[in-house]
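[Meeting: bench + compute handoff]

Bench side (C.D.) handed over the final construct sequence. Compute side (W.E.) agreed to return the predicted structure before the next meeting so the bench team could plan truncations. Sequence as handed over:
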Amino acid sequence: MRWSFALGVGLALAWAPTPATAESVVVDRTLVRFTAPELGGARRPSFVFERELAFEARLEALGDPDHAGVEPFRDRHVTSALERHIAETLLSRLHIDPEPSAVEIAAQARAARVMLVERVGGVERLEAAARAEQISELEVQTLLRRRARASLYLDRMVAPMLRPTQSELRTLHASRQTPFSTAPYEDVEPRLRRWYAGQRLASAVSAYYQGARARLKVHFLHAPPAGSR
């Protein structure tokens, strides 16, 4: 299976295993280092760690309707998770005018959690994914706050997408191209609103990543998380 953004090639070239000893236990390790002008360039690199990337890949797999395998995630989920992580990190560092308050960021983080729970199929599946990669609630909150700031930037500085209109939602529901098409609109309107906003945000994050690729410098330091093959 091929990795987008030369991921497989980069990982193969960068992979340099560290000899294990009876005394050493690897708790976590840096998989990716990346820099971009938005982050301060080469002097201020950002990092992606193995546990968080594996967790985010699990989330991508849980939200993938075409993923029915027994493995927790596939190569494409690792690729999607990494690209989303990098794009959201960049977006979350950009200036928002007006700057959102702490209350607004917290509210959007709560909304991001609800969207995520619905996307992966419930709280239990989200919590199971976190346990599988030993991700704490604080680390989940960090992901959600990053996603919240990225969402607020896109909504305020690019195009409104967090609050679709009733007209947009009714047209979408009538198209019968959503998971809720068989139910009456009034019964599914809140979930349809969150689903639509989540879809638009994901598309905008992906588009931002594609536009930022020329500015990014991504270095792969170790092999992908176990279970991605």
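W.E. noted at the follow-up: The CA atoms of residues 116 and 126 lie 8 Å apart. C.D. will use this when planning the next construct.
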